[in-house]
Specification:
single chain, about 260 residues, alpha+beta, 15 strands, globular
């Protein structure tokens, strides 16, 4: 299935109308947790409302699953999975590595998506057939790197602190094998896999709205995204994204020890 790039761009645009005026100008931050800290902002909520309104107007027969307002029509074949601000902690810290995510699944398979970073004016898009970059420097087709060996790879994760017990041990095995490991950047790290600057992203504890939009963007650029057991990434949880199948297989073997 092919989704019009113009519609993906419209999703990015209506979200940016809500996020950009509030970026580095935070008016309200709430905490979702009674214990710990999981921030949500006015920008998260208003951006999701805007995206939902657009999808409902243009595709009333599609379902929606969003981080802030849950699901509607989830029994439909076409479901939009949206995260209005992936990387809210970066957002409230004034760091432009957050992004708006919107991905379309058809019968459970992620087929198209957009990751938008409006402050840097960057779009990472997949229409179902090809992945594209639009931003400073022009428009180009996205293509992952050809890195074949872990020893030459650049690895990202949000923070090693997300891995507990045996998962931390598994992650550490991979980090010890790569050339460079860096932390942070949330969805932007996955976009950099598609763009050919990062080779691996390994994370755990993800929800579908954290990853669905990114799956087709990476896959149509030449990469591989699965769970740690090699299953469909649409199920979320523990995720590994790799620049190519060979590197993915090598990293998965080390990860699973």
């Amino acid at each position: 299935m092919v989704v019009e790039l113009s519609f993906l761009k419209r999703i990015a645009s209506v979200a940016a109308e809500q996020t950009l005026p509030r970026f580095r100008n935070i008016s309200l931050i709430d905490n979702k947790f009674e214990s710990g800290f999981d921030p949500v902002t006015e920008a998260d909520r208003e951006a999701e409302k805007a995206i939902r309104a657009l999808i409902n107007a243009e595709h009333p027969d599609h379902g929606i699953l969003g981080e802030e307002y849950g699901g509607e029509n989830l029994d439909h074949s076409h479901i939009w999975v949206i995260d209005p601000i992936d990387g809210t902690r970066a957002f409230i810290s004034g760091i432009p590595v957050w992004g708006t995510l919107a991905g379309l699944t058809v019968d459970g398979d992620a087929v198209a998506g957009v990751m938008a970073q409006p402050f840097t004016k960057e779009l990472f898009l997949c229409d179902g057939e090809v992945s594209w970059y639009e931003g400073p420097g022009g428009t180009r087709r996205l293509e992952t790197r050809k890195t074949r060996d872990l020893a030459d790879a650049t690895l990202f994760t949000t923070t090693p602190a997300i891995f507990k017990a045996e998962k931390r041990t598994a992650y550490d095995r991979v980090e010890q094998r790569v050339k460079l490991a860096r932390y942070g950047t949330d969805c932007y790290a996955y976009a950099m896999v598609a763009a050919g600057f990062v080779d691996l992203v390994i994370e755990t504890g993800l929800h579908p709205y954290d990853i669905v939009a990114l799956i087709p963007i990476i896959e149509k650029a030449g990469g591989v995204v699965t769970t740690w057991d090699g299953g469909p990434a649409e199920k979320a949880g523990s995720i590994i994204a790799a620049a190519n199948a060979e590197l993915h297989a090598q990293a998965l073997e080390v990860l699973n020890g």
